[in-house]
């Protein structure tokens, strides 16, 4: 585990390498990163609302005043990594093509409605408001990417080489890793939840496992996750082990004729039971079932959150 303290705000990890951390890393409390070159910088992700993003930009100002942000990379389309985009004025926004196409799936207005709606289930409403009630989604318009890519893109940030690797579909359809070879550092977005349970929206889980193997193969020593403390590859491999375990256990129950929600309740998470948001096993098993049966009608977001809420209340 990295010696970087897991405290809110700005952390310099190495020369020209910075992270903005948001404990406890649960729903919406994401991390961002900054790569600083000669007189210019690249920001990795914004935060879940504009208030939080403005606080981050103010906190990074002692660095960015002399190295303005010229590029913003969104690692994926979830709002806690891009809803603050429009505050990074003048920067070129880059994402994978798949991320750009996914941005409209859950706009801020839909999340605002979800948090404030009468959902007809008191337990579900408490769960949703506990997860997202701290954020202000009203009036947000997400600045879309100016430039998209597929596979791999090499950038130069004031003389510092930065590589973008598209390793999705995994957490989402278009997950991107920002690799700084000279610092042996990778900003991996939500391909890593450290201390919290990974959440699979797209899958397959086996592809996420391969993505982690690719990251480890880059030879990185420092990993900035989308959620949780700065870490090394050992913690990343623990995420891989969880995903591999869930895929195997869910597959066995699928072939045994068990329904997805029941299968998620039946799986003993063992060493991963203490991770935060362990109820995400409900969403993760659903994705395994969907890939095993491509004709399966996907569960909608309200259904998935209802399953998670009731699972957490067991």
User: Strand-and-helix sequence, N→C?
Assistant: EEEEHEEHHHEEEEEHEHHHH
Q: Which value, in Å, is the CA radius of gyration?
A: 19 Å
Q: Could you tell me how far the N terminus lies from the C terminus, measured between alpha carbons in angstroms?
A: 32 Å
Shape: globular
The level of helicity is 25-40%
The mean pLDDT is 97
Major sheet strand order? 1-2-3-4-5-6-7
Number of strands: 12
Q: What is the top-level CATH class?
A: Alpha Beta
* Count of alpha/pi helices: 9
In terms of quaternary structure, the protein is single chain
CATH superfamily label: Ribonuclease Z/Hydroxyacylglutathione hydrolase-like
Can you tell me the residue ranges where pLDDT is under 50 for at least 5 consecutive residues? none
CATH structural fold name: Metallo-beta-lactamase, Chain A
Give a written overview of the molecule.
It is a single chain. With 314 residues, the chain is of the alpha/beta class. It has one domain (9-312): Ribonuclease Z/Hydroxyacylglutathione hydrolase-like (Metallo-beta-lactamase, Chain A). It has nine helices and twelve strands. The protein has helices spanning 50-64, 97-102, 108-116, 122-132, 205-217, 233-255, 260-266, 281-292, 301-312, and strands spanning 9-14, 17-21, 32-36, 41-44, 69-73, 92-96, 147-149, 152-157, 160-166, 176-180, 185-193, 222-227. The strands form two sheets. A seven-stranded mixed β-sheet has the order 1-2-3-4-5-6-7. A five-stranded mixed β-sheet has the order 8-9-10-11-12, covered by helices on one side. β8 and β9 (160-166) form a beta hairpin. α3 (108-116) packs across α4 and α8 (281-292) packs across α9 (301-312). The protein is globular and about 60 Å long. The model has no long low-confidence stretch (mean pLDDT 97).
């Amino acid at each position: 585990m990295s010696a970087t303290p897991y405290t809110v705000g700005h952390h310099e990890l190495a020369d020209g390498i910075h992270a903005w951390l948001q404990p406890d890393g649960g729903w919406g409390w994401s991390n961002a990163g900054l790569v600083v070159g000669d007189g210019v910088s690249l920001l990795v992700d914004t935060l879940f609302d504009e208030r939080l993003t403005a606080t981050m930009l103010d906190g990074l100002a002692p660095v960015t005043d002399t190295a303005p942000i010229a590029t913003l990379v969104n690692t994926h389309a979830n709002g806690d990594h891009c809803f603050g985009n429009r505050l990074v004025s003048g920067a070129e926004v880059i994402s994978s093509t798949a991320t750009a196409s996914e941005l409209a799936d859950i706009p801020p207005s839909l999340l605002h409605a979800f948090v404030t709606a009468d959902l007809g289930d008191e337990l579900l409403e408490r769960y949703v408001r506990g997860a997202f009630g701290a954020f202000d989604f009203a009036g947000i318009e997400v600045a879309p990417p100016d430039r998209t890519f597929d596979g791999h893109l090499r950038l130069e940030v004031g003389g510092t080489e930065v590589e973008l690797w598209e390793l999705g579909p995994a957490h989402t359809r278009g997950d991107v890793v920002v690799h700084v070879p000279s610092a042996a550092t990778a900003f991996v977005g939500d391909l890593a939840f450290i201390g919290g349970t990974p959440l699979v929206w797209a899958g397959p889980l086996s592809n996420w496992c391969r993505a982690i193997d690719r990251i480890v193969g880059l030879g990185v020593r420092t990993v900035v996750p989308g959620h949780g403390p700065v870490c090394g590859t050992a913690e990343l491999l623990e995420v891989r082990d969880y995903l591999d375990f869930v895929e195997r256990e869910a597959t066995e129950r699928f072939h045994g004729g068990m329904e997805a929600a029941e299968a998620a309740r039946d799986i003993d998470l063992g060493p991963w039971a203490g991770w935060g948001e362990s109820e995400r096993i409900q969403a993760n098993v659903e994705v395994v079932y969907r890939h095993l049966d491509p004709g399966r009608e996907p569960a909608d977001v309200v259904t998935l959150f209802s399953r998670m809420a009731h699972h957490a209340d067991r």
